Amino acid sequence: MASLHSKVALVSGVSSGIGQSIARALVRSGFRVFGTSRNAGGIEGVSGVDLLPLDVGADESVRSCVQTVLARAGRIDCLVNNAGYVLGGAAEEVSIEEAKRQFETNFFGVMRMVKAVLPAMRLQQRGRIINISSLAGLVAAPPFWGVYAASKWALEAYSEHLRREVKPFGIGVSVVEPGSIKTNLTRNQSVAAAPIRDYDPWRERAFAAARRFEGNAPDPSVVADCVLRIVEARAPRLRYRVGAEATWVPRLHRIVPAAVFEKLIKRLFDIDIATTSSRRGASDRGDRPQETGRA
């Protein structure tokens, strides 16, 4: 068993992609790493990582996970909140219950984890909390990811306030904001259960564009490298943007008129194409939107 003085990290959502890459990088850096997943038993062994079951949406699961880490390792030096998913769909299509589930994981799940580890970190008088956000937490894109973006915008504000509050205890808080990364985030996204056919042309083109961006994006290791820079820094910053998109898109958003930026986003995601004449005709006739369930 590792010494009580070893560096210990707890990383949520290590089943694949960014979380798994972060866990591997922390192991190489000398951390004892505990990685979590809702189905930890179904993950192929990640060398050097102690796998634990965790549902960030359940208070008891979070409490049990953190207590297990403290019992086994004696401390938690670094918490990486990576668990999350994308809920796709137009704002009108997403039900309140679906939106609540999105926030339960992406936002309240982070709050649960932070509240669970802070007593130990305050006792230690040191620690790092790293929240994995998104370019969507800075700019309202990609289209049809509105509730996902809202959960990340909430995470951004929460992290900034948390950073000021825990700094006197020697605890640092940072947010990592990746653009597109080559993972299965878009392919595994949840989609609103009651789609409205009127949105189909724009929604499907936007989803296809997001998948193309993801397929051409950098490897998750770029996010893992950023996390290592944060844990090794003497005075880490609040925000770290990862990837070219995460740099130029927010910058452009600040300097160009809103109408110009909106037009650019529509063009990038292939949703500036006019609707079909048949749909225009339906709208002109005052036909009501048709709602159908997705098979």
Distance between the termini: 50 Å
Q: Level of helix content?
A: 40-55%
Per DSSP, the total helix count is 10
Strand order of the largest sheet: 3-2-1-4-6-7-9
Percentage of residues in DSSP E strands: 5-15%
The tally of domains stands at: 1
CATH architectural type: 3-Layer(aba) Sandwich
| Class inferred from helices and paired strands | alpha/beta
**Total strand segments:** 9
CATH third-tier fold name = Rossmann fold
Rg is 21 Å
Shape: globular
Please explain how this structure is put together.
With 295 residues, the protein is α/β, with parallel strands linked by helices. The protein has one domain (8-281): Rossmann fold, CATH 3.40.50. Helices cover 46% and strands 14% of the residues. It is built from ten helices and nine strands. The protein has a seven-stranded parallel beta sheet with strand order 3-2-1-4-6-7-9, with helices on both faces. The longest helix is centred in the middle third of the chain and has 21 residues, at 146-166. The N and C termini lie far apart (50 Å).
Give the key terms.
14% strand; two-stranded parallel sheet; alpha/beta; 9 strands; Rossmann fold; 7-stranded parallel sheet; disordered C terminus; single chain; 295 residues; disordered N terminus; globular
Q: Quick gist of this model?
A:
The protein has a single domain, classed as Rossmann fold. Helices cover 46% and strands 14% of the residues. The chain contains 10 helices and 9 strands.
